[in-house]
C-alpha cells in the first residue's frame, strides 16, 4: 500500500494568466448599456450610457426626443460619464436607432425586465 505524495504538484500555484490574452474580462468599457428604471407606478426611465466619444450626446438626445416623442435629459455621472435619460420604455427604439446610425449591434447591451 503506497501513500501518494501531494508535495510534487501544487494545484494552487500561479501559472500565469489562465485566460490567455484577454485583458478586459468583466469590463464594461466598450459596451453601450441601455437600462430601464422603475419610477413610481407605471412610470419608467430609460438610461443610455457608455456612448463613444465621437458621438455628440446633446445632438443624439435631441434626435431621440424628436424621434420617440418623449422628454429626456443629459446627466453627468462621476462613474458612468455622460448618461442620457429618456422618459418611458425606449430600449428597443434606442437600439434600432443606434444600429441604423452605424453602431454594431454586438456592442449594445440591453438590460432590464
Supply database-style keywords.
113 residues, Translation Initiation Factor Eif1, alpha+beta, 19% helix, elongated, five-stranded mixed sheet, 2 helices
Task: Write up this protein.
- The chain has 113 residues and is of the alpha+beta class.
- It has one domain: Translation Initiation Factor Eif1 (2-Layer Sandwich).
- The chain has helices at residues 57-68, 91-100; strands at residues 32-38, 44-49, 72-77, 81-87, 108-110.
- It has a 5-stranded mixed β-sheet, with helices on one face.
- The longest helix has 12 residues, at 57-68.
Structural class: alpha+beta
Task: Round the mean pLDDT to the nearest integer and report it.
Answer: 84
- Give the overall form: elongated
* Broad CATH class: Alpha Beta
The CATH homology group name: SUI1-like domain
**Gross CATH architecture:** 2-Layer Sandwich
Share of residues in helices: 10-25%
Estimated share of beta-strand residues: 25-35%
Our measurement of the CA-to-CA distance between the termini, rounded to an integer number of angstroms, reads: 60 Å
**Series of secondary-structure elements, N-terminal to C-terminal:** EEHEEHE
Low-confidence stretches: none
* Rg from Cα: 22 Å
The major β-sheet equals:
5 strands, mixed
Oligomer: single chain
Amino acid at each position: 500500500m503506497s501513500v501518494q505524495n501531494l508535495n510534487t504538484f501544487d494545484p494552487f500555484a500561479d501559472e500565469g494568466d489562465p485566460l490567455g490574452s484577454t485583458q478586459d474580462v468583466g469590463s464594461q468599457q466598450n459596451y453601450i448599456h441601455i437600462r430601464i428604471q422603475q419610477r413610481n407606478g407605471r412610470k419608467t426611465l430609460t438610461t443610455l450610457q457608455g456612448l463613444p466619444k465621437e458621438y455628440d450626446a446633446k445632438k443624439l438626445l435631441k434626435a431621440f426626443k424628436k424621434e420617440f416623442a418623449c422628454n429626456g435629459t443629459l446627466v453627468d455621472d462621476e462613474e458612468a460619464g455622460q448618461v442620457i435619460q429618456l422618459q418611458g420604455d425606449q430600449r428597443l427604439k434606442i437600439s434600432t436607432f443606434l444600429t441604423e446610425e452605424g453602431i454594431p449591434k454586438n456592442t449594445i447591451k440591453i438590460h432590464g425586465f
